[in-house]
Amino acid sequence: MNTVPVTHEGNAQRLWRRFCSDSFARNGLRVVVVLFILAALAPFLANGHAIVRVADGQITFPVFRSLEPIEWRFLLYVPLAGMAYIFRRPLSRHPRRGLVVGGSFIVLVEIFLHLTHPINDPSNDRDSAASFRILPLVHYSPIETTPDQFSPPSWQHPCGTDSTGRDIAARMLHGARISLSIGFVSQGIALLIGVTMGSVAGYYRGWTDIGICRFIEIMDCFPTLLLILVVISFTGSQNNMFCIMAVIGVTNWTGAARLVRGEFLRLSAQPFTLAAKAVGASDLRIILRHLLPNSLGPILIVGTFGVASAILLESSLSFLGFGMQAPTPSWGDILSESRRYIDFAWWLAFFPGLAILVTIMSYNFVGEGLRDAVDPRLRVK
Amino acid sequence: MSTPLLRVENLGIHFGPLNDPVKAVDGISFGMEAGETLAVVGESGSGKSVTALALTRLLASPPARIVSGRIEFEGSDTLLLSESELQALRGKQIAYIFQEPGSSLNPVFTIGYQIREAIELHRPEVDDVTAEIIRALDTVGIREPAKRLDDYPHQLSGGMQQRVMIAMALACQPRLLVADEPTTALDVTIQKQIMDLLKELKRTSNMAIMLITHNFGLVSDFADRVAVMFRGRIVETGPTAEILRNPQHAYTRALIDCVPKLGQKQHRLKVIDYAGID
């Protein structure tokens, strides 16, 4: 007699298995992860200072001296990981609380670090005497100007240099951090607003719903780019990275709000919402603990697509000259500069354009993979 | 005579437009003693579920409007309670079991987690919650309850899911259990098991049970008293045996006749003749 194997996998595991069965989604996720690793390690990959230098019988690590406060992220995360390891027992007893504490700590560190300008030290020690040294892969810092302007891609400058002789590869590596973190943080802000609005509208219905829906429609009437430009022109010269993230986030939450509202309308009519109410759960508890986990799939999907569009939006802003301030590298900024020299310096447009294309495409593949994994009707077996 | 556990007086619940309302519940009154089992019998739309939900104000309003009456539970009117007092009442004093066990359990959480939530909400004094969950699952006849804690609702059969719902309701030791058609979505053998379980619970605990059903077949050997509802009114109420033996109202007779009897030759099932009742 055959026994039927009982699968003991949760929704998350099933989702993950379905997601991984889609090769586009799988590889898209890989590319995104690689991009994040490259972006995180940017100061160690593109820097004018040697990683290890041996001179006069002394071993020094010059790369750490040139680090901006923002680079100390790693040095903040290492003790964080250590703390998580030490407190793993109490954390595993309350996994949700641990997740919330860890998550909010990471968000705080990130916001703190992003408020400081990510500009590298333009100095270098490439030519200083040393008996042994390991230079970073690209041994130029992103804002360091060199005499060889408009040099095409070579071993020296893998992606060429721009009008002031800055290394494009170094600028792109450092720009990746800005593009990726703007995508994530601004979409995080957008989701926070959108999910809150949508869940309140969908759960309470009635006049609350009508009010929020009209507000969403009013927000949708504004052309997003124009709205952002207006807001940025008000914030004036102090448009730092956080400001741009906030503006993109605040103007892009309506899609998420609509989706979550629909999802909550559907879920709150389900018997388990009534059952949760009958057990004595409060409205807040039902929204956060019962309905939100049920609509996590669609939220994740809309968030993934949103990250892609936020990156694109930031590039467009930089292209228009409203993005990050001058010496700070960003993909859109490199593209914008390439406009004037496009007839002979093709590499100025090609590499940042390729980076944007690959990133957006990967995110969209991940988003589509998630959508297919969540919606079994789209699955082709 | 002590105060009754539950006393409903002249309860009226309307839906739809104010000037021409649909009177889902039209001025009904009934009472329940502690530990008593009352069966509320009636067809779909007769207002029995609406009455049950109104006990702890679970009806969404709008669209529902409670237009008259009072619902006294242990001496206090639940219609006048604040939302937080109601939350303390729901689950702790009055627990519910619903018709569709599959969709009444949250699909993304394990059953252990969902029972834990009920216990943590209403019985903060319990130290070993896991042991309490296992005990609750054991009470409702789930074998190897410790192994089932991490199961998701979709991994259980309908009968098991309904047992979990009952365990969840029992975990807080309510004074009144409202079973809103607990067996309608289940097949007949499971229906029997669940009714046997409820009977067992009735015998072992001092919990009052309000069984809402359209099936007179379930009522006979379960309920102490029966209230028959028809079009928002209670048309007949009394001890079960008496009603079954000597139904007074035409609708009650029609309902009793609807239950197919084994061993009796019947060519077609009886259909209620509404013209005759009106």
In short:
Chain A is mainly α. In chain A, 66% of the residues lie in helices and 3% in strands. Chain A has a domain at 12-47 and 149-378: Orthogonal Bundle (MetI-like fold).
* First-residue to last-residue Cα separation of chain A: 28 Å
Largest sheet of chain B: 6 strands, mixed
SSE pattern of chain A, N- to C-terminal = HHHEEHHHHEHHHHHHHHHH
The mean pLDDT of chain B is: 86
Shape call of chain A:
globular
The beta-strand count of chain B equals 10
- Spatial strand arrangement across the major sheet of chain B: 6-7-8-3-9-10
CATH architecture label name of the domain at 12-47 and 149-378 in chain A: Orthogonal Bundle
Provide an overview of this structure.
The complex is a heterodimer of chains A (381) and B (278). Chain A is an all-alpha fold. Chain A has a domain at 12-47 and 149-378: MetI-like (MetI-like fold), CATH 1.10.3720.10. Helix content of chain A is 66%, strand content 3%. Chain A is built from 17 helices and three strands. Mean pLDDT of chain A is 80; it is low at 1-8. The mean pLDDT of chain B is 86. Chain B is built from twelve helices and ten strands. The two termini of chain B are 38 Å apart. Chain B has a six-stranded mixed beta sheet, sandwiched between helices. A four-stranded antiparallel beta sheet of chain B has the order 2-1-4-5, covered by helices on one side. The A-B interface holds A 6-8, 10-11, 206, 270-272, 274-282, 289-290, 293-294, 296 and B 53, 56, 58, 62, 84, 87-92, 95-96, 98-100, 103-110, 117-118, 121-122, 150-152, 155, 165, 168, 172.
Throw out a few tags for this protein.
heterodimer; A: mainly alpha; MetI-like fold; 3-stranded antiparallel beta sheet; 17 helices; B: 278 residues; 12 helices; 35% helix; 23% strand
How are the elements arranged and paired?
The complex is a heterodimer of chains A (381) and B (278).
Chain A: H1 11-20, H2 23-40, H3 42-45, E1 52-55, E2 58-60, H4 62-65, H5 73-86, H6 88-93, H7 95-115, E3 132-134, H8 168-204, H9 206-221, H10 224-235, H11 241-251, H12 254-268, H13 271-279, H14 283-294, H15 296-319, H16 331-338, H17 346-374
Antiparallel strand pairs in A: 1-2, 1-3
Chain B: E1 6-15, E2 22-32, E3 37-41, H1 48-54, E4 65-73, E5 76-77, H2 83-89, E6 94-97, H3 101-104, H4 111-122, H5 129-139, H6 145-148, H7 158-170, E7 176-180, H8 188-204, E8 208-213, H9 216-219, E9 225-230, E10 233-239, H10 240-245, H11 250-258, H12 274-277
Parallel strand pairs in B: 3-8, 3-9, 6-7, 7-8
Antiparallel strand pairs in B: 1-2, 1-4, 4-5, 9-10
Helix pairs in contact in B: 4-5, 4-7, 5-7, 7-8
